[in-house]
Amino acid sequence: QQRDKLKQYQKRISLHLEKERALARQLLKEGKKEKAMLLLKKKRYQEQLLDKTENQISNLERMVQDIEFTQIEMKVIEGLKIGNECLNKMHQVMSIEEVERIIGETQDAVEYQRQIDEILAGSLTEEDEDAILEELNAITQEQIELPEVPSEPLPEEIPEASPVKNRPKPELVAAS
């Protein structure tokens, strides 16, 4: 408001200066040099007032800009304050130990899933293959029961099998 009032004052002085300048010219034409000189001094004084008014307007505009910027800063500070309060509440809800525990559980679950994926994909390591073969050998040795080996020595010649005499032919047996 003050800025607007100063601008109106500035316009009035500018108009007044123009009138006094025209009046000073007229007085000079009429030969009234001293009155013209007095009017020019008055005009000069009003020009100085006009400059002061311009400086005051600049100061007021700068002040308005500073106030607006300060209001923006206040909003930023209020936003930071609210953000800090939210962070503090979140920190109260979750402690570092809780976060570390959750991350540990997540890493364990990821590792377990990776192992399952490797098994399903058949990408076993050499150690895994060796362990599997060892387990397979242990299982097969538990299940197999070998027959006892005869303690008698084997004959050197195998006797020829004698043909069975008087054995009926299978076709005849079935027909009777």
UniProtKB/TrEMBL annotation:
UniProt cross-references to InterPro entries, sorted A to Z: Snf7_fam
GO biological process: late endosome to vacuole transport via multivesicular body sorting pathway; protein transport; vesicle budding from membrane
Entry keyword Transmembrane: no
Pfam families for this protein: Snf7 (PF03357)
GO annotations of cellular component type: ESCRT III complex; multivesicular body
Source species, domain of life: Eukaryota
Presence of keyword Protein transport: yes
Membrane-spanning segments: none
Region (Disordered): 144-176
Alphabetically ordered keywords of this record: Coiled coil, Endosome, Membrane, Protein transport, Transport
Localization of this protein: Endosome membrane
Coiled-coil region(s): 28-70
Stated family: Belongs to the SNF7 family.
Name of the protein in its database record: Charged multivesicular body protein 6
Species in which this protein is naturally found: Struthio camelus australis
